[in-house]
Structure formats: C-alpha cells, structure tokens
Amino acid sequence: MSDEQPRPTDIREGSPPGMEPVSDDRSPDVPSIRLGVEPDAMEIFFAWEKLRLAYNALLAIIVLSMAGKAVIPVLIHACWAGPIANLMFCAGPVSESYLVWLFGAPRPIARWVVFGLGLAVSIAVTIAAVVEVKMQFPG
Predict the structure, then answer these.
(1) Neighbouring residues of 85: CB distance < 8 A, sequence distance ≥ 6
(2) CA distance linking residue 126 with residue 131, whole number of Å
(3) Is the Cβ–Cβ distance between 66 and 134 less than 8 Å?
(4) Mind giving me the DSSP string for 100-134?
(5) What is the pTM of this model?
(6) Cα separations (Å) of 77 from 64, 85, 120?
(7) Which of 16, 40, 77, 128 has the maximum number of C-beta atoms within 10 A of its C-beta?
(8) Residues of 86-102 as b/e, b for ≥16 C-beta within 10 angstroms?
(9) Per-residue pLDDT of the chain (139 residues; tens, 9 = 90+)
(10) Cα–Cα distance between 127 and 63 in angstroms, integer?
(11) Domain for residue 6, yes or no?
(12) Contacts of residue 37, Cβ cutoff 8 Å, sequence gap at least 6
C-alpha cells in the first residue's frame, strides 16, 4: 500500500507545484523604501497608542485628586468628557505626520511637541471642568 502513487485529491506538504515561495532577498541595487527613515502608519499608530496610556492615566489622576467630596458628579461628567478627550487625542498622529511632511520636522521631536501641547491643553480643560463641576455641586 505504501507503493501507491498519490491521487489528485491527496493533500501533500509544501507549496502547490509552481507556487514555491519567492526569496525576499533583494539585490543591493534595488532600493528599499524601508531603508530606515520613515515608519509606516501602523508604527506611528502604535507609538501614539502607547502615549494614550500615559495621557489617560495623567488625566485620571488629576480628576480623582481634585474631585474631593464631589467625586460622583465629577465622575459622571468624566463619563462623557473622557471619550471626547480621547477622540481629540486622535489628532496627534495626524498632526505629527503633517509637521514631518510639510515642515520637515524630525519625527521624534514632532511627536513630543504635539503630545506635550495636546496634553497641556487637555490638563487645562480637565482642571477647568472639574472646578466647574465642583462649583455646581459643593460638597
């Protein structure tokens, strides 16, 4: 039985005939678009998602440390303000990319400038919002 020829319906290991994998070795004279300078969109996205963790943590610390006795109204306000802040955070990678593309800014500097300015604005808005809620609900 082991001397039988495979039937056309048998499954075999490896690639189908004529579909062997092509080597990814590029010759040195063919330039690669990935030679080192610009990350792709996914790399930029993930870099900003790591920053989102710090962004949310810092804003949460500010909210919780300022809430005092008005913690429930402040947290209710944060339930709708938090998602808006995170939606505005999405402007970060776009702003970074435009700074690099239009003005030739180095990407790491552009990222930290945009993140720092956005974080500063968010902190100011967060503090103002918490103070306003606390004034409405003195505790």
Answers:
(1) 59, 122, 125, 126
(2) 9
(3) yes
(4) HHHH---HHHHHHHHHHHHHHHHHHHHHHHHHHHH
(5) 0.70
(6) 12, 12, 20
(7) 77
(8) eeebeebbebbbebbee
(9) 556 676 666 666 666 666 565 555 555 555 444 455 678 889 999 999 999 999 999 999 999 999 999 999 999 999 999 999 999 999 999 999 999 999 999 999 999 999 999 999 999 999 999 999 999 987 6
(10) 7
(11) no
(12) none
The answer to whether residue 32 sits within a structural domain is: no
Number of domains observed in the structure of the chain:
1
Q: Residue 20 has which token pair? A: 């062997």
Instruction: Kindly state the tokens that stand for 42.
Output: 């996914």
Amino acid at 69: K
Is residue 13, in this structure, part of any structural domain at all?
no
DSSP class of 70: G
**DSSP three-state, residue 74:** helix
Q: What span, in angstroms and rounded, lies between the C-alpha atoms of 121 and 126?
A: 9
Determine the structural domain holding residue 114 and report its residue range.
41-136
Q: Would you give the distance in Å from CA 136 to the centre of its chain?
A: 35
